[in-house]
Design a protein that fits this description.
It is built from 13 helices and no strands. The chain has 192 residues and is an all-alpha fold.
């Protein structure tokens, strides 16, 4: 398959993963193709199909893409729900803050790494607020953030402790308060 045909083929998430790997191996020095491989993997694991697309070839490609110089590819790996914890640990030290911020949002990121990311710059810390794997202690601190969007993500976080949600239910921002109340109700329904 030539370069142009490969680029076109990668736009289809139904392209067999074996062919995606073959294209990657053939063109791994071409950052445009590498970026399209990363995009193809992202399409396979959209918000609606997170359980689809896993497997050894996916993991192999995610590992390889995490090593590329293409920031967009590392960004796609950092947010992918199939990225293994060891790769996320490595990407947590990426020079690009957006890559680190996406590592902070990924539920597969180990707790110890999330603790380290809490000391990073604001965009990275903010990523922790919606991650269901963020330790409760960190969510409690993030619930006091001056940014209402951070508080909103904590209020919507299914792992937010009940006492944090109760506090956010009285937040001065009406949307944050409503989100916390909805999460508290969801918690009660789950317990029933």
């Amino acid at each position: 398959m030539d370069r142009e045909t490969s680029l076109e083929a990668l736009q289809e998430k139904s392209l067999p993963i074996e062919e995606v790997r073959e294209i990657f191996e053939t063109f791994k020095e071409d950052m445009e193709v590498v970026g399209q491989v990363a995009m193809n993997l992202s399409l396979r694991t959209s918000v609606y199909d997170r359980e689809k697309g896993g497997g050894p070839i996916m993991i192999e490609l995610l590992r390889a893409l995490s090593e590329t110089e293409d920031m967009g590819s590392r960004w796609a790996v950092a947010k992918n729900p199939h990225t293994p914890p060891d790769v996320l640990t490595k990407l947590a030290t990426d020079e690009v803050n957006l890559v680190r911020a996406l590592v902070a949002t990924n539920p597969n990121t180990p707790g110890a790494v999330l603790h380290k990311l809490f000391s990073d710059e604001k965009i990275v810390r903010d990523g922790l607020s919606g991650n269901p794997s963020t330790p409760p202690k960190l969510l409690a601190v993030l619930a006091d953030d001056s940014d209402k969007m951070v508080r909103m993500r904590v209020a919507e976080n299914p792992s937010a402790p009940e006492e944090v949600l109760r506090k956010l239910a009285n937040d001065p921002d009406e949307n944050v308060a409503k989100a916390a109340e909805a999460n508290l109700k969801r918690e009660k329904i789950d317990e029933a």
